[in-house]
Amino acid sequence: MGLLDDKVVLVNGGSQGVGAAVARAAAREGALVAVTGRRPEPGEALAAELTGAGGRALFFRADLADADQAKASVTRTVAAYGRIDCLVNAAGLTARGTLLDTTPELFDQHVAINLKAPFFAMQAAVADMVAREAPGTVVNIITSSAHGGQAFLAPYVAAKAGLVGLTRNAAHAHRFDRVRINGLNIGWTATEGEDATQRAFHGAGDDWREEAAARLPMGRLGQPDEIADFVVFLLSERSGVVTGSVIDWDQNVLGGLD
Asked: Is residue 189 predicted with pLDDT exceeding 90?
């Protein structure tokens, strides 16, 4: 038996990066999977891959900057599978901005994707769980930068720090509904999105991963499949009664000083 046998798992932002790794790990553990993304090509390819491997997977195109589409990702999952048991909010915008140069438009984009979308996806998912009087789990992919972060991530930090508070608030509110809600503050991770960000905003070359790894304690960046295994554990019953936890999944010890 898999850790998520017959569980319906929705991964928002699941067509690439950490989200896609979570979708693959959930499918391996027996879940019925739905993923969302803005671009149909990688999302449909992932759904076909998981289905071809013997699982059940669907892709829904969604722009999560629109709260209505964030909610619809849940209602479409329920329409397809009859319910939702697990939600993973993995979508994220990392466009750079400092306190001094961030425009209201950029700030609103960060809030829409990094905070508003998880809020309304959780609203719809928890509503289904409560209506069925059934337990469920949510994992929010956050960031270690939520503790303060880099100067060039001001709007990102503001939105993700809000998601930390939301995770704990929602977990507290629905603990007696047996809906467990946790978060992961992930560190620097080797994803397609991070590669694009490094090239677009920092002029990185093809060897940026090797250069970054040389500066990190473990000598490598975090890997999406490692994060995915941890997410599956938190979604599953093996994580017991844990709720309201926001776990630092990183190799740097925040608060430690040399």
From this structure: no
d(CA 189, CA 12): 18
Q: How far apart are CA 2 and CA 119, in angstroms?
A: 29
Has residue 252 got a pLDDT over 80?
yes
The DSSP line for 73-88 is HHHHHHHHHS---EEE
CA 128 – CA 130 distance, rounded (Å): 6
Distance CA 204, CA 238 (A): 40
Active-site residue, selected from the candidate residues 59, 81, 156, 249: 156
Q: What CA–CA distance (Å, rounded) separates 52 from 84?
A: 22
Q: Give 215-218 contacts, CB < 8 A, sequence gap 24+.
A: 216/188, 216/251, 216/252, 217/251, 217/252, 218/251
Reply yes or no on whether 81 is catalytic.
no
pLDDT (tens digit, 9 = 90+) per residue, 43-55? 999 999 999 999 9
CB atoms within 10 A of CB 104: 8
pLDDT digits over 71-105, tens only? 999 999 999 999 999 999 999 999 999 999 999 99
